[in-house]
Prior knowledge:
The complex is a heterodimer of chains A (324) and B (133). Chain A is an alpha/beta fold and 324 residues long. Chain A folds into 2 domains: 39-249, P-loop containing nucleotide triphosphate hydrolases (Rossmann fold), CATH 3.40.50; 258-323, no CATH class. Chain A has helices spanning 3-9, 13-25, 30-37, 57-70, 120-135, 149-157, 169-177, 197-210, 232-248, 250-280, 282-289, 295-323, and strands at residues 45-50, 75-81, 90-92, 107-113, 139-143, 160-165, 186-189, 221-223. The model of chain A has no long low-confidence stretch (mean pLDDT 88). Chain B is built from 5 helices and 5 strands; from the N terminus they run βαβαβαβαβα. In chain B, strands 2-1-3-4-5 form a 5-stranded parallel β-sheet, with helices on both faces. In chain B, β4, α4 and β5 (112-114) form a beta-alpha-beta unit. Chain B is globular. The mean pLDDT of chain B is 96. The A-B interface holds A 13-14, 16-18, 20-21, 25-28, 83-84, 87-93, 95-96, 99, 102-103, 108-111, 113, 115, 117 and B 1-5, 7, 26-27, 29-40, 43-44, 46-47, 50-51, 53-56, 83-85. Residues 53-59, 94, 97, 190-191, 193-194, 225-227 of chain A line the site of guanosine-5'-diphosphate (GDP).
Amino acid sequence: MHELVKKLLAGDRRSAARLISIMENNAPEKEELLAQIYPFTGRAHVVGLTGSPGAGKSSLADALTREIRAEGQKVGIIAVDPTSPFTGGALLGDRIRMQEHATDPGVFIRSMGTRGSLGGLAQATRDAIRVLDAFGCQVILVETVGVGQSELDIMYHADTTLVVLTPHAGDHVQVIKAGIMEIADIFVINKADLGGVVQMATSIESMLDLSPRLNGWRPPVLSTVAHEHRGIRELWEAIKRHRACRRDNGAAREREKAHRELLDLVRRQLEELVARHLNARCGLVEQVATRQKDPYTAAREIMAGLLAVGEKAQLAKFARGKEE
Amino acid sequence: MSSRRIRVLIAKPGLDGHDRGARVIARALRDAGMEVIYTGLHQTPEQIVEAAIQEDVDVVGLSILSGAHMTLIPMVTQLLRERGAGDITVIAGGIIPEKDVKALKEGGWAKEIFTPGTPLDDIVEWIRNHVKV
Ligand code: B12
Ligand SMILES: Nc1nc2c(ncn2[C@@H]2O[C@H](COP(=O)(O)OP(=O)(O)O)[C@@H](O)[C@H]2O)c(=O)[nH]1
Ligand SMILES: [Mg+2]
């Protein structure tokens, strides 16, 4: 076993941090290390927090951590912020709200930039969760950027997804628009001190009346004031209830998650392969661009070429197998 | 495809409330393509070192305008060493007199110190030159 993995399993924080970087950077040793870590994962309860920037996700993660730590469980937090598409840099500021736990040996906090790679974030987050899982974190809180695809992605990484809203007019529209009804296991109306909670809760509840229930779970609608720690115990209790409910059909869900990830990985590898192949056959691109060939015929030729490459590789492997 | 980024923790240790410089630096480094973790005001050396380890940063940048640099900078560097993270580069900036700059660098407590008026590009260049990616 690799030294880093040994130390990770023994609870060494530096090794945990290093391993997350390796996953994030897609370093050459990543796959080999992940293969060693994987058997030690699948134990943590992963809680996703999504919602608009400023809704209070970091503050809630901080408050929840206090609640979970009071029960003596080890907590991991992964906080994702956007990477600038122009410079590739990122300002990661979620820790500001989590300083209370900065020196608690039972808490590990990691900030990540989206790094702008399509689907890449999803994978890096998934692998970072695995590192913290093997590290022994019993609950892992994952704070998403709160916009776009990441909101949907989190549903497939998390066992329980919290949709964090604030009682402002704009959010009412957002609830309907983003298809968020399908994502949420629990609705959290944060900043309840600002008023308007009842209207907000009523509109969510009436939408829930119309939504089909999954496995008998109706998402509760809770209100909180994160920085005053109000409603946090109730929220943690609801998360635990959802966990118990999920456990009943856990195996089916694990299979669904595995299926989705495999599909994802294979698709991404194929895409890279196809892109390379297309580059090598830029003549075809030219022919389509100049109307010498239609795109369907060209696509078919490329597919045929790819499959031939695949077959040749298979045959070569087969031949090698015979020699050995 | 591998995609390594330079990661920097910008921290304000002690009771110093001057955070303009720290914010300016954080933004400049982000705009230079780095990942910057900013933890806000009033950090203890313990908090800074723990954050540096968990975030696996290449550089810890301390911003100090309170005059407490001669105690705070060595405390952070010492603690990093004790936690087995002495390989993380420590730099600092703020109101730090010339003779203290010399003492801190010669004592091995800080690799470099940037006082007011340093062009931001110089700071970005220094980090790029001293972190192997
Ligand atoms: C603005 C200011 C304030 C503002 C701060 C606003 C804020 N949120 O930041 C306010 C009015 C609140 C303030 C208050 C006080 N201030 Co004042 N303040 C200043 C002033 C005029 C400018 C500081 C500034 O923002 N500069 C702009 C930034 C961009 O520059 P910078 O921080 O120096 O950063 C540059 C470099 O130093 C370096 N750098 C800085 N940090 C880092 C970090 C890294 C990693 C790197 C690589 C580089 C780097 O790069 C930057 C760009 O070149 C200075 C005087 C001066 N000319 O510096 C006094 C000064 C810092 N203040 C001083 C004092 C005494 C105070 C008070 C104690 C006054 C009082 N008696 O109440 C209070 C204390 C507040 C507190 N809680 O700590 C003294 C400090 C004396 C000392 N250290 O010995 C100074 C030097 C004034 C003086 N000559 O007496 N202050
Ligand atoms: N009034 C009020 N402000 C809050 C509450 N929770 C968080 N905030 C503030 O809202 C701002 C954004 O919070 P943050 O947790 O960073 O939101 P995030 O962007 O979703 O992670 C901060 O200034 C918080 O102090 C709350 O319950 N009530
Ligand atoms: Mg946040």
